[in-house]
Amino acid sequence: MRTSWADSVANSASENAASGSLENNGLSRPTRSTYVPPHLRNKTPPSSEPPAPSQSNDRIGYVGAIGGSRWGGGFKADVGRSGHNSSGSGYGYGGRTGGGLNSRSGAWDRKEREVNPFGEEDGKDAFGEQENTGINFDAYEDIPVDTSGDNVPAPVTSFAEIDLGEMLNQNIRRCKYVRPTPVQRYAIPIVLAGRDLMACAQTGSGKTAAFCFPIICGIIREHSVQRPRGPRTVYPLALILSPTRELSCQIHDEAKKFSYQTGVKVVVAYGGAPINQQLRELERGVDILVATPGRLVDLLERARVSLQMIRFLALDEADRMLDMGFEPQIRKIVEAMDMPRPGLRQTMLFSATFPKEIQRLASDFLSNYIFLAVGRVGSSTDLIVQRVEFVRESDKRSHLMDLLHAQRENGVQGKQTLTLVFVETKKGADSLEHWLYMNGFPATTIHGDRTQQERELALRSFKSGKTPILVATDVAARGLDIPHVAHVVNFDLPNDIDDYVHRIGRTGRAGKTGLATAFFNDNNLSLARPLADLMQEANQEVPDWLTRYASRASYGGNKNRRSGGGRFGGRDFRREGSFNRNMDYYGGGNIDSGYGIPSGYGGYTPGVASAWD
DNA sequence: AAAAAAC
């Protein structure tokens, strides 16, 4: 399997191609069943061959006019919007739901038909989705789970055990979710029980549903609550914050599905897009507001949104939301406006990584919370082959070109191999994209200096396979669910190992194998040790030269040490430093290694330094 | 030092 990177990519592509034949054993490797995120299960197989990719990128007039009009924004106003903002007619007045929710919101006299978010799923891109029946759901049974906190509610094993209500159950069926994922099994009962939650779980493990289901359920139950009526101010009951616009859009799209015909209204607000349209959406009523911090602060200062009635607050990618760049804004939203205090609202923090210092910060926002860490089946540990190569700065471009050439030659005919290339800077992204394009590789780029239209267009162009190479800054590192990414290249490694974890998590999704290649050189010395440790725990081959760098590397403190030494997760910082870590100092500490499966799953052997020690 | 996030 690990013969060469090109083979890995080719294997990945051929597994995609052979998906139909996989369905009966559900295994791409003999030893472990594969985990498929719920939103990707049970899609119908493609009915026709995907079209060959066209050799172009998404920039109008790009080739001939590199200088002037390149950034000119010469797009039509509706370009870049079709994937989102379908909320335009989102009245959610199902007719048979009783409609009590809408009458509060002042839009009850306009019964527009709610767009069915389930009808348009298939045949959307050049790939088609694989049939996932036959997945071995018993794979769930040996996922290590760690909970701590007072009186942790018992997990469930099926959606039927949870009373989410008929409307929500119907949408769960429409989403083809068969059984809850591990994070859902634990998180949903915790939130339904009214508890605050800090959850470590990988993206793609069903996090979005894990916080959306209990929020929607809670809003349906509280539908009789009286909300103030301002002439222009709206009073959402739930707020979901995320660090990037694209991620907010993605969460919004998901939440729309889950709340279809429940009468619960979901609105998204983010920067870079005209505010007027978003204001109109808000005026039509909002129960769940999904937003990026900057635009929300704007709306709050204009008094167009009040947080006074917030019952649920969810921070996705919570560790990023609380890092240095974001923390002041988040504190303003959560502590300095009219948001109810902890204990009077329910707060949920989710991320795949949760450094100790951030946990400490986050505890300001929480009240008697439960900490939940869910290990992963598949994805990084099992399904991503990680390679690291020593590449001098000046050799990076030609090295990348070699990779791409070989990949093109090894690719399965007619199947796209999406490659996501991470760089450090926005300028570097533009310059690399330009260079790739000039060398005949259809590439596009996404970063914070592009307009929102350009960003969304680039993402769509990449997802569809039109430009199968996407050069990205960290704006694309977290949370984005892009199926079919076979290869993540860390052209520039990040300085923080957590960022590396998030970046490589863009591949190896949906039970497919993925490849992550990193270019390492003298500029990345501080990453040598954490990277070597991480790869070792993930059972990856660590080159000798990296081990040497790692042992040589001495750096102060544990800044780059992952919290608790754990991989792909973390542990409750409240339990650090207690005299006996096995005593439940805070009560309720509980390591559940899972349903009678003996310890020793992958690298997570209890007793060894890991997330579960 | 860089990236993200409002106008």
UniProtKB/TrEMBL annotation:
Keywords from the UniProt entry: ATP-binding, Helicase, Hydrolase, Nucleotide-binding, RNA-binding
CDD domains named in the record: DEADc_DDX3_DDX4, SF2_C_DEAD
Record protein name field: RNA helicase
Domain of life per record: Eukaryota
Bias kind Low complexity: ranges: 10-25
Domain (Helicase C-terminal): residue spans on this chain: 399-550
Similarity section: Belongs to the DEAD box helicase family. DDX3/DED1 subfamily.
Residue ranges of every copy of the DEAD-box RNA helicase Q domain listed in the record: 157-185
PANTHER family associated with the record: ATP-DEPENDENT RNA HELICASE DBP3
Catalytic activity: ATP + H2O = ADP + phosphate + H(+)
Residue ranges of domain Helicase ATP-binding in the record: 188-372
SMART domains in the record: DEXDc, HELICc
EC main group: hydrolase
Key word Nucleotide-binding present: yes
Any one GO molecular function term: RNA binding
Statement: the UniProt record of this protein carries the keyword RNA-binding: yes
